[in-house]
Amino acid sequence: MSIPTANSFVRRRRSRLGDIALVVATGAATVLVLAVLAIIVIDVVRGGSQRLSWTFLSMAPSEGMTAGGVFPAIFGTVAMVILMTVAVVPAGVATAVYLHEYADAGSRLTRAIRIAVNNLAGVPSIVFGLFGLGFFVRFVARASTAPSSAVKRCSGSRRWSGPR
Amino acid sequence: MIVLMASGNAAITSASFVESVRTLSATIAAELAEVVFGGAHYTVLFFLGTVLFVTTFVINFLGDYAIGRMKKRLGVAA
User: Fold this and answer.
1) Residues B56, A122: contact at Cβ < 8 Å?
2) Contact yes or no for A1 and B76 at CB 8 A
3) CA angle B38, B40, B44 (to 5 degrees)
4) Are residues B40 and B72 in the same domain?
5) Cβ–Cβ contact A133 with B under 8 A
6) Which of B21, B25, B33, B41 could cross-link A157 (Cys pair, CB 3.0–4.6 Å)?
């Protein structure tokens, strides 16, 4: 958002110097971040490439998580992503299309929806995970135990006890 | 999750900035898997969640209000 002001012409020379300084600073920051990323990637590949094997990817951990593989974590991640995508994308896309194409920009309802969406992004996700878990435990657990254990796994259990 | 790992998740903290700390969200994440459902501990975790929710909501609302006022003053379409 640039606001043209009356004396912008006078300030042009100084702001050009500022432009150059900012471009140099942001460029240096980018190079720094990329360098750190390269160091991390090189270190991980050099240290881990010999250990990476099909059995590591396809087996459950064994012997108290000191041997075996990481398959449960990969499976759980993929399963959660697919489940959540199926559950969430229709509602999210519908909200976005409604807000962008149909909603009256100034109306109270639109502002309420925008505040709710901002809030959804701002509140730590663990809070909604907690509320979702509470919902599943209270209302769904009687009917089926599977959803509650899925939410529980996504909202914070750090333990790895294999596929349940 | 990274807050849980990087903050140290210390149950007892001091005012020092270099000691381990613990956040509300990390507390929920670490303890939710171990509580008795419906018990006092479980209820307290929900209280923590509500505190986080209300705080974030109020700050977001104030920010939205400030942005709206700024837009109006600068004459930008909402």
Assistant:
1) yes
2) yes
3) 100
4) yes
5) yes
6) B33
Residues in A closer than 8 angstroms to B74, CB to CB, are 1, 3
Residue B60 belongs to what domain range? Answer: 36-78
Q: What is the pTM of this model?
A: 0.64
Best of A1, A80, A130, A140 to substitute, by most chain B Cβ atoms within 10 angstroms, is A130
Query: Is A134's CB within 8 Å of B46's CB?
Result: yes
- Residue B8, helix vs strand vs coil: strand
Residues B43 and B71 in one domain: yes
Which of A105, A127, A152 faces B52 most closely, judged by CB atoms? A127
How many separate domains does chain A show?
2
* pLDDT tens, residue by residue, A96-143: 999 999 888 778 888 888 888 888 888 888 898 888 888 887 787 766
Write the pLDDT tens digit of every residue in A48-91: 888 888 888 888 888 887 788 888 999 999 999 999 999 999 99
Find, in chain A, the residue whose alpha carbon is nearest to that of B53.
Answer: A123
Burial class (CB in 10 A: 0-12, 13-18, 19+), A69: middle
